[in-house]
């Protein structure tokens, strides 16, 4: 039986619990969404580290892409399980001691190393407010919480070049306009040497892998900590990065 048919009952139950919405939701008209999209886009362009503006831009422009991602998740067994169980990636849900005890090269250990090296935390991800559907709101939230895991899978730090490379991958993977905008405008903030690296090696690699990889939202990462990073990359059809980028001590994205 197609997964999307099995999902119908649980989706309707979720909608009935929140009357089609969810805690923290802010109702907006199409015109208001357009204003928010323009304003947040300008603010995010001026300061790419404005997480709040980037979040608003994603929510107000991503409806069609979120529908497509929902279809992919509903028709994937693991993706359907994620939609049903609604896992969260937060410090409160992570067993950091267990991750630290895993062997080098395991996905969980390398994810923890990424957090430590780049001085980031999964708790920095904003809650969703402007998506007018509870299930789509969760998918947007899941995308945000999976972002750091993608950095780990792709071997990209949180400096500007690493962030742009991940955005190129995400744009090809998700179709979210926010990712496409970041992929197009992000290079404007790179110096000449990093631009050369982006356009000659890192960028083409990110686009190619984004197009051909399995949907990254259909992986229950919380059950994959002990899997080797290399095996998970092969399962997702992601090649290792062409160059090794190091974490920067500067302000991280």
UniProtKB/TrEMBL annotation:
Q: Which UniProt keywords apply?
A: Lyase, Membrane, Mitochondrion, Mitochondrion inner membrane, Ubiquinone, Ubiquinone biosynthesis
Q: What is this protein called?
A: 4-hydroxy-3-methoxy-5-polyprenylbenzoate decarboxylase
Q: Which organism is it from?
A: Characodon lateralis
